[in-house]
Specification:
251 residues, alpha/beta, 5 helices, disordered N terminus
Length: 251
């Protein structure tokens, strides 16, 4: 039986979901329980957070890491897990060269370690699961989009969802083992035999937009500044309404 997901939030303005300032301001202890290697440069870190009030796919959180001498560093990270993963959250982090937080996670962190988190944050990039979703991501920009894919599967939602994801090569494709028929992959530097190499093009976008749901697509784009600009321009040029393109960028 297909269940319709109804978020425990309200729309603040068209296209933006209200975020509780009270829950977003509360720091909570998160205990690392598992580390999964995704690629040579990215790993997923699973945390137990008993007091977590839940989130919507696409939202992110603030993480605080405090050293023994009292020095602390804070970073924003997208949430990779679906909202139904009660009491747990997952973050997938690239190992950024020289990054003090990502560096600690990839070289020192172990199950049992504790950090602090607060959130969820931002309602603009959230996807409640109530509208057709066209997702385009590159590199670690696929992380919040994977939360949407996992939510779509976990709830057995009938609303259309498509994912177009770009990576340098197969070995750097985060979540490669989880992708299914909803996903189209593009490789920019190396690819399996017979697979073309190159950036996401107008042809890729047109193929996705060719299947037009009755209410149209809500597009979500996540990646570097350059990628987000490139992908969003392709969408608009292909006919996607500019007010139905949501962008999350980094770098």
């Amino acid at each position: 039986m297909t269940e319709t997901f109804v978020p425990a939030t309200r729309f603040a303005v068209p296209g933006r979901i209200a975020v509780s300032n009270r829950s977003a301001a509360l720091w909570q202890t998160a205990t690392l329980t598992e580390i999964r290697r995704e690629t040579p440069y990215a790993s997923t870190f699973r945390f137990a957070v008993p007091g977590w009030q839940g989130h919507l796919p696409g939202q992110h959180l603030m993480l605080r890491l405090t050293a023994q001498d009292g020095y602390s560093a804070q970073r924003h990270y997208s949430i990779a897990s679906p909202p139904d993963d009660t009491g747990h959250i997952e973050l997938t982090l690239d190992h950024v060269e020289g990054g003090e937080v990502s560096g600690w996670f990839h070289t020192e962190a172990a199950p049992g370690d504790e950090v602090e988190v607060r959130g969820p944050l931002s309602g603009f990039f959230a996807w409640p699961g109530d509208r057709p979703a066209l997702l385009i991501g590159a590199g670690s920009g696929v992380v919040p989009l994977m939360s949407m894919v996992r939510h779509h599967r976990a709830r057995g939602l009938s609303v259309p969802l498509r994912l177009l994801v770009s990576a340098r090569g197969p070995e750097e494709l985060i979540y490669a083992r989880e992708f299914g028929a909803e996903t189209t992959t593009v490789f920019t530097r190396s690819a399996p035999a017979g697979v073309p190499v190159g950036r996401i093009t107008a042809t890729h976008v047109a193929a996705l937009l060719a299947e037009q749901p009755d209410d149209g697509w809500e597009a979500y784009v996540c990646g570097s500044n350059a990628f987000a600009e490139h992908a969003s321009r392709l969408l608009v040029a292909a006919g996607q309404p500019v007010d139905r393109v949501r962008i999350e960028r980094f770098g």
